[in-house]
Amino acid sequence: MSGTRFVVRRRNWRWAPGNVDTPRGWVCFPGPGSEVAGFESFDAAEADRTLRESAVRQRMNPFECGPLSSVTTLPDPILRDFLMDAGVEPPAAGVSWADWWTAIRPTMPEEQQARVWQAADKVRFFEVTEEPDAPQVHVVVDVTWEERDGVHVAERDGGELIRACRSVKRAGEIARGRANQRRITLAGQHAVDAAPFADCRPSHVPDPFAPGSTRLLRLPRASFCEVVSIPFDDSRYDAIQGIGEDRVCVVIRHDYSVRPEGACNEGAAYLGVPVNAFADWDDAANYANELKTQARSWFNPFSLGLLPEQLVILRSVHRFYEFVRTLGVSPPHDEDWQGWWAEFIQPLPIQTRDQLWNIIAIRLYTVVDVPFEK
C-alpha cells in the first residue's frame, strides 16, 4: 500500500425551505462529507467524482446554491458576457438567475448547459481528498430522535458518542444491544407500536439531492444506534495509556437541521458526527482548529436563515451593527444578510473575517472524550 488513499466524498448540501429573510435553496455545510468511494489512485477517484458530479448536475439548479457570488467567481456583467459568447441568452432585467435556469434548461443544448456549469465554478457536489491509510476505530453512536406532532424525527447526522472500539464486531454488538433495548422501551411505552419514524438524515435519505426525500419507518425498522468507522491517530497511545480509564479523543462535526425558521442545532455540545480519533487531546484540538479555520474560509453563516440577533453573542443588533462598522463595512440596507456576507465579508482578509466569526455563536467542531475498548 502507498500509505494514502483517495476518497470521494459527497459534500454536505442541505435543502433549505427559506423564510422572509433568506431565499429557499441549497446550503453546503462544512465537512468532511460522507465517503461514497475510495481508490488507490487520484485519477480513478477523479473519474468517479466526475461521473457522480455530472449525474447530480442533471437535476440541480446551480443558482439555487446561494447568492450569485457564492455560485461563480464571475461578476454579473462578466458572467453574462461569458454566456453570450456561447450563444446563451442570460436572464432579462427583473428575472432571477434561478427562475431563468428553471425556464430555459429544458430547451438548452448540452454544450450550453455545460457552459453554465463551467461558469458556476464554486458549486461542487463531490470532492476528492487524499487521506492517510490509517488505523481505524469504530464508534458507537446513539441516533438523536425528537418527537413532533406524533412523529419521531431524526434530522441531523451523528448523535451521542457512546464508545469507541478497535473491533468493528464488538462495536456492532454494543450498537445492536442498545438499539434493541430502545425498541423494547418504546414498545412498552406505546403498547404495541410507537409513532412513525421519519428518518430525514442526509446520510440516510434515499436521495440527498431531492428535497423531501424521507423514509417513514415503523419501530422495528428505525435506527437507534449505529457504528461509524473513523481514522485513529494512535501514534501517542502507548505513551499515555494506563493514565486512568482507556479513552480516546474524538473530533466531531456538528450537524444542523434546516427548517423554515432557520437552521438549528438544539442538541448538546457533545452531539455530532465523529470525524477523527486521537490518543492525545492536544492533537485532537489542533485538528479541530484546522477544520474550523478551513470552514471559516468559505462558509457563509447567514446561509443558515437566521438573523444577526440569533447568530451573534452580542446582546443587541445595534451593538452588532456598531461592531461591523468598526471593520469598515456597512450593514445591509435590505436585510439580505446572506448576500451581504458573500459580497462584502467573504472578500475581506481572513484576520478581519475571523473578528466577525469570533462573535458568531455557531458550533462547527468539538473534541469529546469517549471510552475506548482495545
Task: Give a brief description.
Helix content is 32%, strand content 27%.
Any key phrases for this structure?
374 residues; alpha+beta; 2 domains; globular
What does this structure look like?
The chain is an alpha+beta fold and 374 residues long. It has 2 domains: 4-128, no CATH class; 135-279 and 367-373, no CATH class. The protein has helices spanning 42-57, 68-71, 76-84, 97-104, 110-119, 168-189, 237-240, 281-296, 308-311, 317-326, 337-345, 350-357; strands at residues 4-16, 25-39, 126-132, 136-143, 146-148, 151-154, 159-165, 197-199, 215-217, 225-233, 247-253, 257-259, 262-264, 271-278, 365-373. Strands 4, 7, 10, 11, 14 and 15 form a 6-stranded mixed β-sheet that branches. A 4-stranded mixed β-sheet has the order 5-6-8-9, with no helix packed on it. A hairpin with a 2-residue loop joins strand 12 and strand 13. The longest helix has 22 residues, at 168-189.
